[in-house]
Amino acid sequence: MARKKQAQPGHNSAAADELRVYIERIERLESDKAEIAQDIKDVKAEAKSRGFDVKAIEKIVKERGETEKQRRRRKETEDLTDVYRAALGMLDGTPLGDSARERLMKPEAEPAQDDAAPGEEPGARQRATLTSEDIAAAKEAGRLACREGKRVIDNPYTAGDPRRAAWDEGWCFEAGSDGMDIPSAWRRSEKKKPARPDAPKDGEPGDGEE
Amino acid sequence: MARKKQAQPGHNSAAADELRVYIERIERLESDKAEIAQDIKDVKAEAKSRGFDVKAIEKIVKERGETEKQRRRRKETEDLTDVYRAALGMLDGTPLGDSARERLMKPEAEPAQDDAAPGEEPGARQRATLTSEDIAAAKEAGRLACREGKRVIDNPYTAGDPRRAAWDEGWCFEAGSDGMDIPSAWRRSEKKKPARPDAPKDGEPGDGEE
Amino acid sequence: MARKKQAQPGHNSAAADELRVYIERIERLESDKAEIAQDIKDVKAEAKSRGFDVKAIEKIVKERGETEKQRRRRKETEDLTDVYRAALGMLDGTPLGDSARERLMKPEAEPAQDDAAPGEEPGARQRATLTSEDIAAAKEAGRLACREGKRVIDNPYTAGDPRRAAWDEGWCFEAGSDGMDIPSAWRRSEKKKPARPDAPKDGEPGDGEE
Amino acid sequence: MARKKQAQPGHNSAAADELRVYIERIERLESDKAEIAQDIKDVKAEAKSRGFDVKAIEKIVKERGETEKQRRRRKETEDLTDVYRAALGMLDGTPLGDSARERLMKPEAEPAQDDAAPGEEPGARQRATLTSEDIAAAKEAGRLACREGKRVIDNPYTAGDPRRAAWDEGWCFEAGSDGMDIPSAWRRSEKKKPARPDAPKDGEPGDGEE
DNA sequence: AATGCTCCAGCTGAGC
DNA sequence: GCTCAGCTGGAGCATT
């Protein structure tokens, strides 16, 4: 850190000194940053040694640091992923997330519903005796329910029941049907785009965090 | 592409030519790769213009390309994230995912349960009239249920009901209690825990593709 | 690959099928891309096993793929890095690159030069007997030469001579002198900025919020 | 920082609180880190506004932070890049760096040299009158010099002379010759590999799986 | 349209 | 030997 300035009498290398100062400031800051990064690593290691999942913690931290806008967008993408997954038949054992249900519920939530069970009461007690036929029946029931105007949250099976995912799958499959255009619940947002799929540029201008 | 080889008679720069060949092979391959990357971009743009969410599609593609091991780990992290979120009171409107429920159910699923409602029937019809007191009551009910040995899937509220998240939150909060150590359901895996001898290490030993 | 389309008679899930098609196209392309990436890795491994330095090859490939503009900018940054290095006294044994010399020569290349050696002929033969005093003398000579209007390419020492770097260092140090503004050869480009260094905020770089 | 602990009398959610503490510690540290990153950005912006090249400054900072080992490796890669560039005829106007010269000098520095000029004295005065024939002659002279055992630092042309690069190019081209194995100066290091780089599979690099 | 920023995957060096 | 954290390079995105 010894200043070399004035080392040569009768001469001042102003530009070189200025450069040196900038570089040293940056180095100092970088050093601080590296120190903090090390601290973060240490905390994570400690949490891990206590039995926590560091990856999950990182996810939580990231979520909590999100702005409201970012959060909404993330949720939307997650929901749509669920919907797409259902439509592709990838919901093996992992039913629709609840927020995807809510999302699917919004657009055209006008129909009526009365009963819920597709033939038997939705009790989850006979878990062990479910056959693949039961699963298929649940899927078909879901499609039927969708066609009848039922909402996705009317899934009669409780969380943990394998038929729950199947019903969801049938419902979503049916929802993306009919040869018409992409259903609005499959799109990213109900942004005033009635029928123009060309996407002029993007309706999401002010993204900036903070 | 004109070969300079033999340009200087009576002299062969073997090493230089070899180097050149390597470089040209790499350049050719890089060029192909860039072309394909462009194609991928085009397909994504087309999908976007059709109304699909590209981010969600990317997520699906990534999931489908996962090996079984990777998939299990991802699921586990997602579940634990849900659990942590619940424990921190971040479940505002987004109840536990179903697979997190399943996970929480496993370890000590021996207790009995009979009724489910904490005081009123769990019908979801009075959605609009729910007060913050109802929410708080649901949370307290969840904590009580946990203390009584109920399982998390015994949440009496259906998907879409705001009290569902509150009940989950109370349950998870209670589950991480008691001054004892980190609950096993909060940890990353039942590695070498006496009770579960299965899961040899992973069913997908040959992980590398090809 | 079995199409599920029409699996359910009287029903066509158009949106789901369209989604599936997009996803499969992307997967196919991603697969091709991964294959090519593997080929590239293989070629590099082969080159390495033949004795070539893969990092250097990658650099060459990258350079060859540059557009003219990118290339010019890269050169400029490299030259300026050399100049800054010299000004900071980091040129231990690695004299200025030739293109940095050319760059430094351009702006005000009007002065005259006659002799070259600062006191002894620049022969490089007595390499082993050079003392640190010789080095310091060379550095001082460089500064003197700069002050006299000599150009940096008038460095009298040949490549490989340790005094060459010292002379450069003295010259560059002197060039960034005199309390005046940053020398033009230190700036990124003579882009129409005749004399306005602006930056009215502070002339003392060390005063930041530290 | 307000602890929620004991908010529910008769109950302490130890695990949840511990998790919360870890997360808050991480968040605090991340916040500090972000602040410093912002400071760094500010300093760079200030330097830029003063006329310095930020890219070059970053390079300098990075170099100064390198360990000796990293520095040596970087230098080696840079030198080899120069050598490869020369061998491929990419040295248009940018002669070999001095450290590449030094490197090339080391391995077999036994030959003798007497004169230096390939036919005319190496004075750089007639810069403007140099023709492409002069350049070609310089390149040929370089190759000849290499064949005669001259070292690369014996390049008779001074920095700034276009023939300097041509001479280098000829020398390096010749150095990588003779149908024998890769020259040692082209390899990454004289690591105990006398002459067998293995790779018995092929001496012809272009035959790979293409 | 060009540039800078940010995020992410892919690769490399340690470590059990 | 395999895994895993760190890192560098590249791609996408937002901005001017």
- Count of helical stretches of chain A: 6
Instruction: Give the low-pLDDT segments of chain A.
Output: 1-11, 109-117, 192-210
Radius of gyration from the alpha-carbon trace of chain A, in angstroms? 28 Å
Helix content of chain A: 40-55%
The largest sheet of chain A is: none
Report the portion of residues of chain A in β strands: under 5%
Instruction: Tell me the overall shape of chain A.
Output: elongated
What order do the helices and strands of chain A follow?
HHHHHH
> What is the largest interface, and how many residues per chain?
C-D, 56 and 55 residues
| Structural class computed from helices and strand pairing of chain A | mainly alpha
Terminal CA distance of chain A? 37 Å
Mean pLDDT of chain A: 78
Assembly state (oligomeric): homotetramer
Number of strands of chain A: 0
List keywords for this structure.
homotetramer; mainly alpha; elongated; 210 residues; DNA-binding; 6 helices
Can you characterise this structure?
- Four copies of one chain form a homotetramer.
- Chain A has six helices and no strands.
- Chain A has 210 residues and is mainly alpha-helical.
- In chain A, helix 3 crosses helix 4 (98-105).
- The two termini of chain A are 37 Å apart.
- Chains C and D meet through helix 1, helix 2, helix 3 and helix 4 of C and helix 1, helix 2, helix 3 and helix 4 of D.
- Chain A binds a DNA duplex (16 and 16 nucleotides) through loops.
Describe the protein's topology.
4 copies of one chain form a homotetramer.
Chain A lengths: L13 H36 L4 H11 L3 H20 L10 H8 L26 H16 L14 H14 L35
Helix pairs in contact in A: 3-4, 3-6, 5-6
Chain A binds a DNA duplex (16 and 16 nucleotides) through loops.
